[in-house]
Amino acid sequence: MGLGENGPVASTSGTLRRIPRSIWALGGVSLLMDISSEMIHSLLPVYMVAVLGTSVLMVGLIEGLAEATALIVKVFSGVLSDYLGRRKPLAVLGYGLGALAKPLFALSTSAGFVLTARQMDRVGKGIRGAPRDALVADIAPADLRGACFGLRQALDTVGAFVGPVLAITLMLLWANDFRAVFWVAVLPAVAAVALLALGVKEPDRAPSATRPDLISRVNLGRLGGAYWWVVVLGGVFTLARFSEAFLVLRAQQGGLPLAWAPMVLVAMNVVYAACAYPFGKLADTVCHGKLLAWGMAVLLAADVLLAWSNHWAWVWGGILLWGLHLAMTQGPLATMVADVAPPDLRGTAFGFFNLASGVAMLLASVLAGSLWDVFGAPVSFVAGAAFCLIGLLMMALRRR
């Protein structure tokens, strides 16, 4: 196939030009906030263990609670955005709260303080998450929905590796001064809030004769069996993929210096960012189930490598495959939720999808931390591989 006027390059360029400006702006907001968040989060596990003296189980508990809080809050913010008929004000509130939480990390002196800052940060993420995803679905043309979700995720993930690169650079320049790096992370968070407020236009929605109930049995029934299957599948995917903090700790076991700890998330997110848009676009044309099954198989391979040895070759191979798995699954899962949910209940749909994923994230991270402390790191990744096999079995039975 040629690469000329009618080839894939021209096709991709044409698709990108058709994506609305507000989608690009939302991607820029995600990019800036992720730079801020990952400057902190890429250092946080090492900071807690090496500086504050916390256990790996406590790291898992804090990470699990934080991510679960974010995903559970998304239920209520998503439902509220449906009820109000507006998405953007809740997104601004959520990003604003996340920006306000960033200075608390620089002030933290104990695991309890870190937990408070992490919870506040993730509450902000929870408030903005479902309304933002529903806003993408509202703005995106129906035939470009997968590409729009993939583009936003790709820009988000660019921030997720730029942040750790900045963290590494500043750690080397400032002799491992964690707190100074945390203070710098405040700046892109503030810029993200400003871009959202000024650069994103929410589309007008047709007035409804009746305002939807906040949560009702009728609305939950309207979501349908196909939607609830996606919710269950997303929960199993999250059980198989616990917090990336464990990737950082596994690499440190292999001798990675403190200042270079963020390189783990850099490597993972380079792959994620490079592949998120292509796989999101692919989700517009191929069977979602097959794409998700291949993504789960890639995560299974990553867990096997990470369990096998803490030698750098095995660990970095597992980290790169982890990023590829995220690119293959996160955009298509969001597209599936948007496709099967009624337009007036998209906020609710993304909210309950994230509720299931939040509970699974809490269970997965606590389980991984417990297994790590008692039996060692390899057993944590073996458990992740077992959940991958369960997910593949579920999809095979569903297909039959």
Salient structural properties:
mainly alpha, 400 residues, disordered N terminus, single chain, 16 helices, Growth Hormone, Chain: A
Short overview:
With 400 residues, the chain is mainly α. The chain is 81% helix and 0% strand. The protein is globular and about 50 Å long.
> Shape from CA axes?
globular
Average pLDDT reading: 81
- Return the CATH architecture: Up-down Bundle
CATH homologous superfamily assignment: MFS general substrate transporter like domains
Query: Major β-sheet, in short?
Result: none
Please give the number of β-strands.
0
SSE pattern: HHHHHHHHHHHHHHHH
Helix/strand structural class: mainly alpha
Helix proportion = over 70%
Instruction: Provide the low-confidence segments as ranges.
Output: 1-10
End-to-end gap? 35 Å
Rg over CA atoms, rounded to whole Å, is 20 Å
CATH topology: Growth Hormone, Chain: A
Q: How many domains is the backbone divided into?
A: 1
**Distinct helical segment count:** 16
Question: What is the level 1 CATH name?
Answer: Mainly Alpha
Can you tell me about this structure?
With about 400 residues, the protein is an all-alpha fold. It has one domain: MFS general substrate transporter like domains (Growth Hormone, Chain: A), CATH 1.20.1250. Helices cover about 80% and strands about 0% of the residues. Helix 10 (about 215-240) packs antiparallel against helix 14 (about 310-340). It is globular. Residues about 1-10 have low confidence and may be disordered.
